[in-house]
Amino acid sequence: MRGKRPVVSLASAKKFAERQGYCWVSNPETQIPFDAMLYTANDVIALRVRTSRNAPNEFVLYEDFFREDYEILRDLPLPPHIARELWVRFVWSRAFQRFRMFNEKLHLLTMIDREKPVFRTGNKEEKGSSLNPGKMGDDPK
């Protein structure tokens, strides 16, 4: 492996994964080169995160462009039912490109970035809610 792991991208990837509903578990084992395991109710993913300066053009296979990461994901000593993904963040972009390994190939997945809902206390208090029971039963005389 060349260079250090992308610390800033890993922090961003963790936030992104949590917004997508995944539970992030960092890999404490340095001998096995993946960054985290992601869990949901029906999906388990071994994840590798990287930052790249260049992007592949339309005629380049992703397996060739991300050769080192592809070989690492392919050779992970994990059961075959655990999905393997590579999340790439290009230096000019804030978004991640998500690649999942299917049948010995990397496929680009489209993602929708779901923001967490914002809790606004002002609206709930004005209307009355179970969070502020004093206002629900008040009589507006």
Strand tally, please?
6
Uncertain segments of ≥5 residues (pLDDT<50)? 123-130
Task: Could you tell me the CATH topology label.
Answer: Trna Endonuclease, Chain: A, domain 1
CATH architecture title: 3-Layer(aba) Sandwich
Query: Could you report the average pLDDT, rounded to the nearest whole number?
Result: 79
Order of helices and strands: HEEEHHEEEHH
Computed Rg: 21 Å
- Number of self-contained structural domains: 1
Spatial order of the strands in the main sheet?
Answer: 1-2-3-4-5-6
Number of helices: 5
For the sheet with most strands, the description reads: 6 strands, mixed
CATH class: Alpha Beta
**Proportion of β residues?**
25-35%
Give the SSE map.
Blueprint: H1 7-19, E1 23-26, E2 36-39, E3 44-52, H2 62-65, H3 67-74, E4 83-90, E5 96-102, E6 105-109, H4 121-127, H5 133-136
Parallel strand pairs: 3-4
Antiparallel strand pairs: 1-2, 2-3, 4-5, 5-6
Summarize the structure.
The protein is an alpha+beta fold.
Structural overview:
The chain has 141 residues and is of the alpha+beta class. It has a single domain, classed as Trna Endonuclease, Chain: A, domain 1. It has 5 helices and 6 strands. A 6-stranded mixed sheet has the order 1-2-3-4-5-6, sandwiched between helices. Strand 4 and strand 5 (96-102) form a beta hairpin. The longest helix has 13 residues, at 7-19. The chain is globular. The N and C termini lie far apart (73 Å).
